[in-house]
Fold RING-type domain-containing protein.
Amino acid sequence: MVDAGEVGVVSHGISKIVRALDNPSSTVRAAACDALAALGREGGGELLRRLRFIELADSMAGNEESRPLLEALTSLVHADAERSVRLAAARALQSIAEADGESARILRDRYSYRLVQVMCWSSTRRDSALADALAVVLGSQEEAEAADEAREDSEESEGDDPAEDCVICQRSLARHGEKRTLPCRHVFHRHCVNQWFAWSKRCWGIETCPLCRRQGHTSGKVTK
């Protein structure tokens, strides 16, 4: 039987790991994500889902408002400047989602847009490790196959001057695969918007434009 003192030691240790997600050192941030991934693999998914995170800057300013750990990890995947941290955070989310069904549901319901965006972005950059981890988080073989398709469609030409970007992957529409123009006249990479449609249909039962949320996109012109 675990006594209260042991529980306190464990809780303090996990809190230190969570606080390290905001450390200025990318090595420390990545190591903290790796530790959380290990906790998830050891069956701690539900515990990690319930944890909350206070950013260091907010704490120093006296603002104690916290946010869920899942949101903090999603933000690292989406916005951290270091690829090693983004990958470690994605693998932490993967282990938590695999260990705890409710965590998986929350990630898909609340944070799918940012995760799909990063998966498309990493796929077109041939970052298979990051794309594959997020495909597992998002929860189906369809996403993994779509990530493979995105890598196959990606082009490596460097000479074009892009006029505009795909809002999903943030890469030039003039390069990196075929374009798809929706009936609402918004344009995306074909593989990016197909991934979005698969997600939209599974989560909400409808296919919607990522920009205007117009429904009924069963058609669309595909161009090079």
